[in-house]
Task: structure prediction
Amino acid sequence: MSESNFCAGGHMFIGELSRRTGVSTRSLRSYGQQGLLRPQRRASGSREFDDSDMAVVRRVRIPLAAGLNTDLIREVLPCTADEGAVLAPTCEETAQDLRRERERLTSSIEQLRAAHALLSSILPTGEATTAGAGRNG
Result:
């Protein structure tokens, strides 16, 4: 038994929210389970969304794309404003949390670059040795 995508009063079901946002229904359900998205529930148990939920999904997707985990997103979401292509922190504590996360990412990038350089220094030698072993073996 399939439901239409719209509810009475201009609300929509999860399939319509998925279509409008480009986010899978599985991800939307996960957002709800993690407290990032709070749909209304009908007596039947169906999730019911409105246009404001599309903005919430967008405000979740931006920090996810930036590498933030959902626990941090749940903390900072109430203190962010959607300003077109970016989110802006509206609380100083949120700005500090985001700065710390940026510093953590910077450190991770530096560690990955060092590991990459080390592997690059090893590979030419290893490739020559492997190639030589194949010819001599």
